[in-house]
Specification:
Layout lengths: L1 E11 L2 E11 L2 E6 L6 H8 L7 E7 L5 E3 H4 L1 H4 L2 E4 L11 H11 L4 H14 L15 H13 L5 E5 L7 H14 L4 E5 L12 E6 L2 E6 L1 H6 L5 E6 L4 H7 L1 E7 L12 E6 L9 E2 L4 H9 L7
Parallel strand pairs: 3-8, 3-9, 6-7, 7-8
Antiparallel strand pairs: 1-2, 1-4, 4-5, 9-10, 11-13, 11-14, 12-13
Helix pairs in contact: 4-5
Length: about 300
């Protein structure tokens, strides 16, 4: 099974939202990262057939090796697709169970399988205990998890998730992240997100998109390796922080909960991106995917 995206381009007037986007995806998790306006939403809408590209093609190869353009597949492609939009339209007067049953019917899930599948999914996303509650009475986090639940209903081969952990507390984010990772072994999963930490340890590849152009595409470990010895921890005094921010790209400031270091007089630790050692007392830090994101896009577009 494979999804091949060849030279997809899309413009809105003079604005080039996507410029010859090309990627190949096999089962596993792919992260789509980029600042607002990078083209992530445009790509998602094209992949879900909610928008037509100006140029390029998207090909689906099944397990038998047959390759077809998704536009020629029609409903056969949509049956393989699960989509979690960032801003879902939910039926507030439906209960959770009624909504899932309705979505199962739309997706053609046989009734004899639908109930068992719905129960399993609701348990996985921690909504089983509120199955009879009306959607309008759910919290924002519950609605977010319900949107994910309907996306995985029917066991789709291709799963496209737009900001799947937005609005969730840390415990729920970890639970949902683990669930996505668990079901991704036999699915092509594309996650568009601003929460870089959610994909750092589960994505097989990270696609960095800027103004419609792919600026990098590699496994997380390969990306962070590119900035090894470019991320530093620098002890500093609080009054020296503004000067350091003017001179270097400071990506995190941590106030130390300890007595002032007698040797350096520091009460603060700065995480700094720099090609060279920013201070004599600076020590190298293990780079993260968030560090690389900021290295590529700049601190003006810091991730959540």
């Amino acid at each position: 099974m494979k999804l091949t995206i060849n030279g997809i381009s899309k413009s809105y007037g003079n604005n080039r939202a996507l410029d010859a986007f090309t990627a190949e995806m096999t089962p596993g998790i792919y992260a789509l990262l980029g600042p607002n306006g990078a083209g992530k939403s445009t790509l998602i809408h094209i992949l879900t057939e909610n928008l037509r590209a100006d140029a390029g093609e998207i090909l689906y190869t099944d397990e038998a090796g047959l390759t077809r353009n998704i536009l020629a597949m029609g409903t056969a492609y949509r049956e393989k697709l699960g989509f979690m939009p960032q801003y879902p339209g939910l039926y507030s007067h439906f209960t959770v169970a009624q909504f899932m049953g309705y979505m199962a019917s739309l997706k053609g899930v046989p009734k004899k399988h639908a109930k068992e599948q719905i129960e399993g999914i609701l348990q996985a996303v921690d909504l089983y205990d509120v199955a009879n509650r009306r959607i309008g009475a759910l919290s924002g986090g519950m609605k977010q998890r319900l949107t994910l639940a309907q996306a995985v209903l029917g066991d789709p081969e291709i799963l496209i998730l737009d900001e799947p952990t937005a609005g969730l507390d840390p415990k729920q984010r970890i639970s949902i992240r683990n669930y996505i990772s668990r079901i991704a072994f036999d699915k092509i999963v594309l996650i568009a997100t601003h929460v870089v930490s959610d994909v750092e340890y589960i994505a097989k590849d990270v696609i960095l998109l800027k103004r419609g152009v792919i600026v990098d595409n590699a496994p997380p470990a390969a990306l962070t390796e590119k900035i090894r010895e470019k991320v530093w921890l620098v002890p500093a005094r609080a009054e020296d922080v503004p000067a350091m921010q003017e001179k270097f790209r400071v990506i995190r400031i941590t106030r130390e909960d300890r007595a002032v270091d007698a040797e350096t007089l520091s009460d603060t630790t700065l995480r700094v991106l720099s090609e060279e050692r920013p201070a004599e007392q600076a020590r190298p830090a293990v780079p993260s995917l968030e560090d690389y994101y900021l290295y590529v896009f700049g601190d003006a577009v810091s991730p959540v």
